[in-house]
# Entry
Amino acid sequence: MQHILINDIASARRERGQTQAELAKALGVDRQAIMRIEAGVGSFSLLLRMMVALDYHLVGLARGKTLSEQIGNRRRNLRLSKADLADRAGVTRTTVSALEGGRGSVASLMKVLGFLGTKAMRRRKPQMIPLIPINSAERDKRFTPEHFLDVLDQIWGSIDIDPCAHPESPVRARRLITLQDGGDGLRDDWSGRLAFVNPPFSRAISWLQRADEMWSAGKVEIVVALVPARTDGNYFHDRLSKVCDIALLRGRFHFSRGEGQQDRATRAPFPLMVVIWGANTSELAHFERLCSCVWIARDGARHRSKKMTVAKNEIELGRSDLVDIALPSERASISPRKQTHNDYR
# Structure
């Protein structure tokens, strides 16, 4: 039983890339406390906190949000009193009551699970849902990391408007539209040269539609949106793929919490893409140099960079050993609307 739970707790920590010291800091305890738990001793209440922090849950024992609830439900399923369980597990009735209340020691827990445990007990597989947290408000509270904002600054300079801003976000724009101040970027007009959108992912499509509307109306010249790479939807196929430059980002993105802080819990469990309206060829090439990505061709045209052109010329000159590599776009961006330059706020 110790192998099922205690050793697997340590495995879950390592899978998340956390050291004992990092987990201890997150829980507000010393590293020795984590070491004791992973050795099978220490406080049951701390073990429960570790399970929550690591999103670790046992299945195959009984229903319950926490291990202490599962122990109580398993005992009742077996029609045992606390005294019966205590006698069979070799502990006191007080110990059983403590464990079912989330208290006691890990050593006592091991004795009780030694009797209550089943062969079906195992760790629940992680649920790959967007940004895991408990509700959509918390799930959407993921902020753009500084390094990505630096990329935008190097290519386009200052951001003129963040239409879905948050007071804790590190994005610094000339104009912020926040719900906290009574604004609504899905309703209020945008303005300026560059708009950056890292929208609440629970309403990503609505924000992409609004960005397209504001750009098409000439309210902003360039829009850069950071969104989940969901390429199967009708709106992606029918609109975005026809008017936008779309970069699929390499690897998984680490977002920030408030004030630019990052941790492993903010790693997106899904791929991301950058959707860009109104950028020109040199800006797209600059983006690729700073941010590893693969471009999706617009209107069926194949993206080819200067590297691709050089390779093609070399092949025509007899260098047939070179590989034909598809890289970012060389074409100039053609805007379907008249651009304005005097609509800054």
In short: Confidence is low (pLDDT under 50) at residues 127-139, 302-345. The two ends are 64 Å apart (CA to CA). The first helix runs from residue 2 to 15. The first strand starts at residue 58 and ends at 59.
